[in-house]
Amino acid sequence: MSKGSGLREEQTSLRGEDAPAKRLGLVAASGGAGEPQPLPVQHGREHCSTEVSVILPVHNAASWLEECLQSVFQQDFQGTMQLSVFNDASKDESLNIVEKWKPALEDRGIHVIVSGHDSPQPKGVGYAKNQAVSQSSGKYFCFLDSVTVVYVKLSQW
């Protein structure tokens, strides 16, 4: 058997019962029409009371954080919202700025969750975002960087 025919056989088998999506559990059995049906997403947020979680990773962002948090504060979104902040080993005043804004944001109805770590080295923006997501309870996520100002109103989405 040549290499080419082996590859062709492998491609053919991927279209059948051994397709990657089926092997990974991403599709259910055929739904009558012969087409696989997507499985429902199950990530534990189906019955959350918070509609939007704003994810904010922070690392040495004191120079921009005031304006960033002000833009979150000024949102006119009428649903439930939370701000999930993860401090990735900041050495500046970032954490103090977040703590200063926390009462005003919560008075505005935005629940604020703050956590982080104080190790000598940051673990990176991906790690910080993942940690912020894991402590969030929103049905939808809005990813915000600490150097970003949100001009678009979430209520317009």
TrEMBL record:
<dbReference type="GO" id="GO:0016758">
    <property type="term" value="F:hexosyltransferase activity"/>
</dbReference>
<feature type="compositionally biased region" description="Basic and acidic residues">
    <location>
        <begin position="1"/>
        <end position="21"/>
    </location>
</feature>
<feature type="region of interest" description="Disordered">
    <location>
        <begin position="1"/>
        <end position="22"/>
    </location>
</feature>
<dbReference type="Pfam" id="PF00535">
    <property type="entry name" value="Glycos_transf_2"/>
</dbReference>
<dbReference type="InterPro" id="IPR001173">
    <property type="entry name" value="Glyco_trans_2-like"/>
</dbReference>
<feature type="domain" description="Glycosyltransferase 2-like">
    <location>
        <begin position="53"/>
        <end position="146"/>
    </location>
</feature>
<dbReference type="InterPro" id="IPR029044">
    <property type="entry name" value="Nucleotide-diphossugar_trans"/>
</dbReference>
<protein>
    <recommendedName>
        <fullName>Glycosyltransferase 2-like domain-containing protein</fullName>
    </recommendedName>
</protein>
